[in-house]
Amino acid sequence: MTSRRRSHNIVKNGWVTDQHGSWAMGFVPLILGLWSAPTLTWLHGMLVIAWTSGFFFFAVAEKWLKFRYKPRYRPALITYGAIAAIFSLILIIGAPHLLWWGLVYLPLIVASFYLSWAKKERSLLARLVAIAAACLVLPLAINVDMPHPWFAADAIAPKGWYLCALLTTYFATTVPFVKTVIRERNSTPWFVGSITVHVIATLAMAALAVQGYNYWTHVLVWVLLTGRAVAMPLLAKHRGVPWRPRNIGMPEIGYSLLVFATLPYGLAFP
User: Fold this and answer.
1) What is the model's pTM?
2) For 32, 165, 192, 206, which has the most beta carbons within 10 A of its beta carbon?
3) What is the DSSP letter of 16?
4) β strands within the chain, DSSP E
5) How far is it, in rounded angstroms, from Cα 56 to Cα 85?
6) Helices (H), strands (E): how many in the chain?
């Protein structure tokens, strides 16, 4: 009982996020970026620490802003914020060209904080902002050991941006899917919209495979994703009982790993 209460307090006070699906979104792009980097250096270690602490910082900052600066979130907010700031500074000192990523991340951070403060952190826009920020760490990780700004022609290989786009597409489609099994589970427009974006994404993946820029195994994963987007809302409606967030978020980690495993790593790009 004491252990369960302690775990509850850790989540309640913001030390660990209760958004299970955010773990995959937060760390799969980072792992893929490290995998795709030409070489790994100590700077990538600084990136991992800065990103991980930043992930927890933004999770608790969302609650802190939403609930109007409740004191119980302050210890986690200060701790994670300090760690993220220290290791980000070390990273910037070691790789000053990464400062150019501020042009990308600053607007996303401002938008995220504002939407949390306005209690719109679960809106479609807020989710897409978070997804963009998370997936962009993939090319950022590749850029760490390349001494050029991210917008320079030779800073990041086209494949890095392409893989980032594929991951962003996957995570973006999870937003309407999750809506259809939780907050909008009785909404026909959301259900139809979710299926529509999944079908469009699947067809796009198939078209890329036809052109030689994708694996057919990745297309099959998208067929599976589309199937779950149809089946899970219908099953919940048939049972008359909504899915618990844990039963949605945990399988989604598995789906993200399937997406991760079948991405077209070995294809040649111009």
Assistant:
1) 0.90
2) 32
3) S
4) none
5) 13
6) 11, 0
